[in-house]
Design the sequence.
């Protein structure tokens, strides 16, 4: 309905479209992007010793990405893993989940109810005021602290404009699979963004975005279904988000000062699959009820930043941030026929707040060959988990944790000669809960020839134990499963080798960038639940296992006139030593994935066509199953291969004042994938399903952009 | 948080102004019928002493006035002579008002003649309901005679997520007897054998020791096995320490008491756990509280009675108590807490099913504590079997459908098969019901109608049952 309306609305513009527009900055006009992640001073990608990948604003626009979860799915090595029962989307990188991966906004880890930077729900990271996204694979513990094990994402926000006023508003309508209605189905996004240069020195920016996801019903029948046939509720939980952001940016000479604020409100509705029919045997009537839950997330983010030069030499960059995210839970009995809520109970579910400060002081030593950066990171973090979120046994309402971290780090860039530079670094981390951690890194860059570069990056980082691992308490007459407050952080180490080549052919009309990388990741002291006593049977979390990932991947870019292609392939092997199990198998199991992003700009129509493709080959994992003889056996289970394909068309009208982007996501119509790689069950049993997507969907985005 | 509320309302207005996108949940609720029905189906004439309220319930709270008209049908008795009702009968009709906000009503039945015999039958039928959208269905008749109960809905007082009570239910008299689980320890069998039952609802366990001298046994002697003499150790060998959960009196943990005293060994007794007191998360349970400790016991036969010797583990003297058999009951019960005998079960013919926590066995994992258990009175002669609704719907099951060869003795035939609690969602199994033959050969069909309270707490079961005719 609404879709049709919008299409008609859009095509009416088509008729009177003026097809004169400058080439989009999409095209290869800035091959040399400046990055800040992991740098002593902001510098170009090619000068950086650390290997940084960038997703640009244009990339985000072409995909019509509203949240981080929308844009990462077709990146190499990274997979987005949705959890349909919590409504959250995590990330998986080199076989490691969100706990090992850190998300930062302007160098500052962004909080969520389960972590500071890690465990991030990608759907909660709105991209509407984002300049670009910088991604570093591998451990970055020296620069970014705990939990930056498999990699980091650093989201760089927009802090300036060439225009006096920038007003952007858009509406985006998406189907969820083939489900779409005005309100009750599909995904509906509205946004308003205003940027203004108040004076030459002061830039202000404000964004409001509403993102309403009505859930994926599939065959389920929603909230008011009153038959007990397991069809009530949703396959993917409905949720709606409201994001508000504000920026104050001041610049004078060598000093910039900024304050950035974000408020996020999200509500996730979980309508129970099971219904109590509440039969009244006397009257032979029913009064069906269900026990439903609404989770409400509130996140406040404040970030003060000062950046400038001291004594005409030392570049300082100091941030102070206070962040808080609380997830509250409202539980109630829903009388389905009368549509009334009863027995409403509200309470805290999980929350976390942190006072965070990070400062770097660059050019402490600054000679032609050596640059030294000193830095600190201070964290005062308070977390809370209620008994509804964490199993802590009856009687205890909640667990709380106060974590203080005092970290100091130093990193230096040493140019041995014109071609070879080194980048050693170290961090010491003191905390009130864990023993002092020492983290080191060493990177090297060799310019082999004008177009060839070789980088070797050794990094380390640790993962701090989560609340389940520390505080679980599930002890009753039949069970004894306990957390372990004495756990140490897991130790992660990574080695990356990148060989890059740039070439220009046909008088520079065809440009190529090629990269081959080798990677190795090693995690020791992995935390796993183990049997600590056979009879009576007792379990406890311990630092026991280890994990290795070994792989090779290649990423390539081609620019030819108005055509751009990025394609890559990655072969990753994972080996797990499970000392927590009586039997295990630490053979490497390999997975192949490849991706391809194509775009073509047609100047005549001021239109960009894009394709985003990714294939993930079969994935294997050793799991314990019952074999034909009824014995427990460790065998490789397999998750079937699958592919993602998104395609978009983007067209501008009236010199870019109007822009429409339309497209289709998940063209292969993936909803779930079969797997035998889940623990338990019998080996010959049927495969289980992992939910991946909600099927082929369509979107239309209309943007109105006014500048003066 | 005021701040966030302020924010929300601010944004609410903003969104409205921006997009006028508000969502009105259009309510197209179907008009629900209004049903008035008897709360239960029957009453026993001999159990009415003088007068009894007879309840009528509504399917939902009344919102206006109305009335329900009952028709009286009498066999071998006379209104005004043998019985009367309040309000009175007028030309065989009884009119009872329906009042706003009420969810039920009742009338009073008064028995004037205390000598009414078994041929008497007094029946009330709902013939009309004066109320908008009224429907007559469910329990439309109420019978007063001298037969067994025709059935009703039932809410045993299990007592919530700690499941503190054992509830013994007699279907034919619609009665329940409730006792706190941890108020007793041992049952002394009243039948011909000399057997001892442990209180499996508090997860007791017993292990035979080598010694026959109770005063000589010390804590040090049992230290090595104490860890194992318990429920839920996940050791398949631990089933020797518990009574077989099938309820067979010949498979108790404690060996039959011999008339030769030298064969009666000292037993190490794990007294299990007190009833839990914590309030768990909704849907969960907190069955076990503090551990109740240990005893050493030895039981001897003295004439036709039991002689129980008991002491704490390190005591070098012991106490003795003589416990007589009583063949009217399955067991005579004893509590260490009060050092006395006490009444627990009704007489063996007067109960059919027991709502209780119990100790079960998991194949390959040994003993395991179960909540929400329903055990039938195997020792009293009750038998049961289960049927899936796919085979025959509950409402359709009648006397021709009874399969006498399907009856099982195993007291766990109902057990916990009526609920599913493995996953986060605690679910009533909706497609199973049970056929139960009571000690007087009445056959009932019984189906569970609730596992949780309205707000999702465990320990609030409900069921309905009907005499199979």
Sequence:
């Amino acid at each position: 309905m609404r879709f049709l309306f919008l299409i008609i609305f859009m095509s009416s513009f088509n008729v009177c479209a003026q097809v004169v527009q400058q080439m989009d900055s999409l095209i290869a006009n800035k091959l040399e992007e400046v990055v800040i992640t992991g740098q002593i001073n902001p510098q170009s990608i090619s000068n950086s010793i650390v290997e940084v990948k960038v997703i640009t604003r244009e990339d985000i626009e072409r995909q019509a990405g509203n949240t981080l979860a929308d844009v990462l799915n077709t990146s190499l090595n990274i997979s987005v893993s949705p959890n349909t029962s919590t409504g959250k989307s995590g990330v998986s990188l080199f076989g490691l989940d969100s706990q090992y991966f850190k998300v930062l906004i302007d160098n500052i880890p962004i909080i969520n109810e389960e972590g500071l930077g890690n465990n991030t729900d990608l759907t909660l990271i709105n991209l509407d005021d984002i300049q670009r996204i910088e991604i570093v694979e591998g451990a970055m513990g020296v620069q970014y602290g705990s939990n930056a094990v498999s990699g980091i994402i650093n989201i760089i926000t927009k802090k300036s404009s060439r225009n006096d006023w920038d007003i952007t508003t858009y509406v985006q309508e998406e189907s969820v699979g083939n489900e779409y209605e005005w309100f009750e189905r599909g995904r509906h996004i509205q946004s308003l963004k205003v940027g203004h240069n108040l004076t030459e020195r002061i830039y202000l920016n404000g964004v409001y975005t509403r993102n309403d996801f009505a859930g994926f019903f599939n065959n389920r029948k929603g909230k008011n279904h009153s038959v007990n046939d397991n069809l009530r509720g949703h396959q993917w939980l409905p949720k709606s988000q409201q994001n508000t952001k504000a920026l104050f940016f001041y610049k004078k000479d060598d000093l910039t000062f900024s304050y950035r604020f974000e408020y996020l409100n999200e509500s996730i509705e979980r309508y129970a699959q099971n219904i109590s029919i509440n039969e009244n045997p006397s009257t032979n009537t029913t009064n069906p009820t269900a026990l439903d839950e609404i989770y409400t997330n509130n996140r406040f983010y404040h970030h003060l930043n000062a950046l400038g030069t001291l004594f005409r030499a030392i570049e300082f960059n100091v941030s102070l941030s206070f962040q808080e995210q609380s997830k509250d839970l409202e539980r109630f009995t829903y009388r389905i026929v009368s549509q009334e809520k009863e027995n409403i109970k509200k309470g805290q579910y999980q929350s976390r707040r942190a006072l965070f400060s990070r400062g770097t002081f660059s050019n402490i030593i600054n000679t032609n060959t050596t640059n030294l950066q000193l830095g600190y990171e201070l964290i005062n973090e308070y977390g809370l988990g209620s008994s509804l979120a964490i199993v802590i046994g009856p009687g205890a309402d909640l667990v709380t944790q106060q974590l203080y971290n005092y970290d100091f780090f130093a990193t230096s860039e040493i140019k041995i000669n014109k071609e070879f530079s080194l980048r050693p670094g170290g961090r010491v981390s003191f905390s009130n809960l864990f023993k002092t951690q020492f983290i080191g890194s060493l990177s090297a860059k060799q310019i082999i020839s004008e177009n060839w570069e070789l980088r070797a990056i050794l990094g380390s980082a640790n993962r701090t134990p989560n609340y389940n691992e520390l505080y679980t308490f599930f002890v009753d007459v039949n069970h004894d499963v306990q957390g372990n407050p004495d756990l140490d952080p897991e130790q992660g180490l990574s080695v990356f080798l990148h060989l890059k080549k740039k070439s220009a052919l046909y008088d520079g009309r065809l440009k190529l960038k090629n990269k081959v990388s080798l990677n190795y990741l090693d995690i020791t002291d992995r935390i796993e639940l183990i049997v600590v006593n056979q009879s009576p049977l007792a379990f406890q979390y311990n630092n026991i296992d280890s994990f290795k990932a070994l792989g090779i991947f290649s990423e390539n870019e081609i620019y030819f006139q108005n055509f751009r292609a990025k394609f890559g392939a990655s072969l990753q092997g994972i080996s797990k030593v499970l000392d927590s199990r009586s039997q295990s198998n630490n053979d490497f199991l390999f997975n192949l994935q490849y991706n391809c992003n194509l775009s073509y700009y047609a100047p005549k129509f001021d239109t960009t066509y894009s394709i985003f493709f990714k294939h993930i080959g079969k994935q294997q994992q050793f799991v314990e199953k019952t074999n034909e003889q009824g014995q427990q056996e460790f065998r490789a289970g397999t998750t079937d291969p699958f592919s993602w394909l998104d395609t978009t068309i983007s067209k501008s009208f009236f010199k870019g004042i109007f822009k429409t982007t339309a497209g289709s996501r998940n063209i292969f119509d993936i909803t779930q994938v079969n797997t035998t790689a889940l623990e338990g069950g019998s080996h010959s049993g049927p495969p289980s399903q992992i939910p991946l997507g909600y099927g082929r969907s369509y979107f239309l985005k209309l943007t109105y952009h006014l500048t003066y | 948080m005021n701040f966030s509320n302020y924010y929300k309302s601010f944004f609410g207005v903003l969104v409205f102004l921006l997009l006028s996108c508000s969502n009105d949940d259009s309510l197209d609720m179907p008009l629900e019928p209004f049903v008035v029905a008897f709360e239960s189906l029957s009453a026993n004439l001999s159990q009415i002493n003088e007068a009894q309220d007879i309840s009528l319930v509504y399917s939902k709270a009344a919102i206006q006035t109305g009335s329900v008209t009952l028709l009286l049908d009498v066999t071998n008795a006379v209104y005004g002579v043998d019985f009367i009702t309040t309000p009175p009968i007028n030309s065989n009709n009884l009119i009872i008002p329906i009042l706003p906000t009420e969810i039920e009503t009742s009338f009073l039945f008064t028995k004037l003649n205390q000598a009414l015999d078994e041929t008497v039958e007094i029946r009330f039928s709902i013939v009309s309901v004066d109320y908008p959208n009224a429907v007559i269905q469910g329990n439309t008749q109420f019978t007063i005679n001298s037969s067994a109960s025709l059935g009703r809905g039932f809410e045993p007082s299990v007592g919530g997520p700690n499941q503190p009570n054992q509830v013994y239910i007699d279907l034919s008299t619609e009665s329940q007897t409730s006792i706190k689980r941890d108020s007793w320890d041992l049952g002394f069998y009243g039948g011909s054998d000399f057997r001892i039952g442990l209180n499996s609802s508090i997860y007791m366990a017993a292990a035979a020791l080598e010694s026959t001298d109770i005063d000589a046994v010390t804590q040090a002697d049992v230290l090595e096995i104490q860890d194992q003499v318990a429920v839920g150790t996940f050791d398949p060998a631990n089933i020797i320490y518990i009574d077989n959960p099938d309820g067979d009196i010949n498979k108790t943990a404690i060996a039959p008491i011999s008339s030769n005293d030298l064969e009666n060994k000292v037993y190490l007794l794990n007294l299990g756990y007190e009833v839990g007191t914590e309030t768990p998360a909704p849907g969960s349970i907190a069955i076990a509280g503090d551990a109740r400790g240990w005893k050493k016991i030895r039981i001897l036969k003295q004439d036709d009675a039991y002689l129980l010797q008991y002491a704490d583990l390190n005591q070098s003297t012991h106490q003795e108590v003589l416990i007589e058999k009583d063949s009217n009951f399955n067991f005579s019960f004893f509590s260490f807490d009060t050092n006395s005998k006490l009444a627990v079960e009704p007489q063996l013919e007067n109960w059919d099913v027991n709502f209780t926590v119990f100790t079960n066995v998991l194949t390959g994992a040994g003993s395991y504590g179960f909540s929400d258990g329903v055990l039938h009175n195997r020792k009293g002669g009750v038998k049961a079997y289960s049927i899936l609704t796919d085979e025959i719907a509950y409402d359709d099951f009648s006397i021709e459908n009874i399969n006498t060869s399907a009856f099982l003795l195993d007291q766990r035939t109902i057990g916990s098969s009526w609920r599913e609690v493995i996953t986060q969602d605690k679910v009533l199994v909706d497609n199973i019901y049970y056929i139960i033959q009571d000690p007087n050969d009445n056959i009932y069909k019984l189906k569970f109608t609730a596992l949780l309270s309205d707000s999702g707490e465990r320990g609030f079961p409900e069921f309905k049952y009907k005499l199979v005719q």
About this structure: Residues 2-223+242-707 of chain A form a domain with the Maltoporin; Chain A fold (CATH 2.40.170.20). Chain A touches chain B through 51 residues (CB under 8 Å). Chain A has five helices and 39 strands. Chain A has one domain: 2-223+242-707.
